[in-house]
Each structure stands twice: as C-alpha cells, then as structure tokens.
Write a structure and sequence with these properties.
The chain is of the alpha/beta class and 290 residues long. It has a single domain (43-287), classed as Aldehyde Dehydrogenase, Chain A, domain 1, CATH 3.40.605.10. The chain has ten helices and ten strands. It has helices at 50-69, 72-88, 90-99, 104-124, 128-132, 164-175, 190-200, 216-225, 240-250, 273-276; strands at 31-35, 41-46, 134-135, 142-150, 153-157, 179-183, 209-212, 231-233, 256-258, 279-287. The strands form three sheets. A five-stranded parallel β-sheet has the order 7-6-5-8-9, with helices on both faces. It has a three-stranded antiparallel β-sheet with strand order 3-4-10. It has a two-stranded antiparallel ribbon with strand order 1-2. Helix 9 (240-250) links the parallel strand 8 and strand 9 (256-258). Helix 2 (72-88) runs antiparallel to helix 4 (104-124), helix 4 runs parallel beside helix 6 (164-175) and helix 8 runs parallel beside helix 9. The chain is globular, with a radius of gyration of 20 Å. The protein starts with 30 loop residues before the first strand and ends with a strand. The mean pLDDT is 94. Keywords: Oxidoreductase.
C-alpha cells in the first residue's frame, strides 16, 4: 500500500436471527458478546426472546405443508445443494471454528465431515420409507400398510459442537419432512448464523429451518411448552435440571422427546435413530378386492 492509498475500514459482519427465510434482529433489541477461545471479542450475536421463539414456530408451521408435501427425492436434492453451498464457503467455516478453539487441521476435517453428513442424509431421503415402512400380514382379505410420516414442527437444542454437531441434529429432522426451530450453541453461535446464510441461498424454502441464537436456558423451556411444537430434541441441554423441566413441559401436549445423552461422537456413523425419532407411523387397511 502506498502512502497515498486511503485507509479502508473493515466491514464488520452483523449476526442476526434466521426466521422464515429472513434475517431479523431480536425483537427485544438484545445482543450478547461472542469471544474467541482466547477471550478476544469476535462479534455481537442476537439474543433471541420468547417472542422470537414464537415467531420461529409460526414460520416453521407455515412451511410444514409445503415441505412435508414435497417429494423425498426433491428434499434430497435440496440437502445435496446445501452440502454444495457449505463446501463453497469452507474457508469461512474453518476460520470460525478456529476462532471457537478448534485446531486448524481439525477444523478442516469438521467442515468436510459436515458436508459429507449432509450428503449422507440426502441419500436417505427416498429410502427411509422403504426401511421403516412395512406391508403387514393380517388375518383377512385386506392390505395392511404402515408408512412413516413427519411429526411436524420440531424444536432442536443444538450441541456446542458448532458445525458438525449442528448439521448432525438438523439434517435428520428436515430430510424426513419436518420443519424445525433450532437453538444454536450459546458459546460459539457464529457458524450457525453462517450456516443460515448457506440455507438461505440453497433452495431450502423459508421457514423449514429457523435458527435462534442466545440463552439456551431462556429459550428452550418456551419451545418445550409451546403447544404448536410437536417434538423436541434436547441434545444440547447440558443442565440436568433444565432437561427435566423441558421434558415435563413437553408432556403437556405429548411431544416426542429426544433426551440428551452427553459425550456424543459426532464423527461416528449416525445411524437412522435421529430420523425415525421424529416420524409417526400411519397404518392403512384396504380391501384386497376379488
């Protein structure tokens, strides 16, 4: 740079919520500082409120008919597109994971694993029905068919693993036709906001995934007690008392609950459990005819 070149100020990124395909600030106007693993200031993240959680649930409910009615093949195509877009921003995700305290080599492996995880779930989109569904033998002149259907709106408390863990809890929920409201990891929320930007530019309809940043202890109970939430994944709840309180609140409208297990190895083969947990089984009887 020569002495005559103007000094340019960096354009600081504004981190917002992701609700209904848009990026609003919290209605409360609150934010909280996000720091690196070394304590350096990185950004101010929006601190979602109860009203933001309600708005996110409403957006997820509006998106549910269209998303659940899409063909499984189409949902798989969109998840694959998300993987493409995520890989295209690999350097940015690596930098954010490094800021969160992950070694650079490990951060690169985590981003690659997140891309692979999305591709893996995309491949399951048109196969899970064949694995979970069944033609049941019955004593009578009937066909008896059991087929899986999405549960509805799923609240997801994401783990503190800011990318691979996040992808590993969101992808199985949406690939089967559910929509979701995600509470991002409180300590390192920036990769979640960047993932929201990926989702917004990858053909995923607005409202299918809604991402809130802020206090897990504040937001999770409201989602657990919300009467228009059909299921809740408590994976990211590390406080035992909070987990119990959320389960008790979820019982009010018989939500499906995936309990926190702790110590999950997100790089391991995930299996089908997270997909089948948020599926309902519909059984149909039909005369065989003559």
């Amino acid at each position: 740079m020569s002495k005559t070149d103007p000094v340019r100020l960096a354009v600081r990124k504004t981190y917002k919520l992701y609700i209904g395909g848009a990026f609003p600030r919290s209605e409360s106007g609150r934010s909280y500082p996000v720091t690196s693993s070394k304590g350096d200031f990185l950004a101010n993240a929006a601190k979602a409120s109860r009203k933001d959680a309600r708005d996110a649930v409403s957006a997820a409910r509006r998106a549910f008919p269209g998303w659940s009615g899409a063909t499984p093949y189409n949902r798989g195509q969109i998840l694959y597109r998300v993987a493409e877009m995520l890989e295209g921003r690999r350097a940015q995700f690596v930098a954010e994971l490094v800021d969160a305290g992950t070694g650079r080599a490990e951060a690169g492996r985590n981003v690659d694993a997140a891309v692979d995880r999305l591709v893996w779930y995309a491949g399951w989109s048109d196969k899970i029905t064949s694995i979970v569904g069944a033609a049941n033998p019955v004593a009578g002149p009937y066909f008896n068919l059991s087929t899986p259907e999405p549960t509805g709106v799923v609240a997801v408390v994401a783990p503190e693993d800011p990318l691979l863990g996040l992808v590993s809890v969101v992808a199985p929920v949406i690939v089967t036709g559910n929509t979701c409201v995600v509470v991002a990891g409180e300590r390192a929320p920036l990769p979640a906001v960047t993932l929201a930007e990926v989702l917004a530019t990858s053909d995923l309809p607005g409202g299918v995934v809604n991402i809130l940043t802020g206090s897990t202890a504040e937001i999770a109970p409201w989602l657990a007690s919300h009467m228009d939430v059909n299921a809740i994944d408590l994976t990211g709840v590390t406080d035992a008392e909070l987990a119990v309180a959320c389960e008790e609140a979820a019982a009010e409208n018989l939500k499906r609950v995936l309990r926190p297990t702790g110590g999950t190895d997100w790089s391991a083969d995930p299996g089908t459990r997270r997909m089948t947990t948020f599926l309902e089984t519909k059984t149909v009887w039909h005369p065989t005819g003559v």
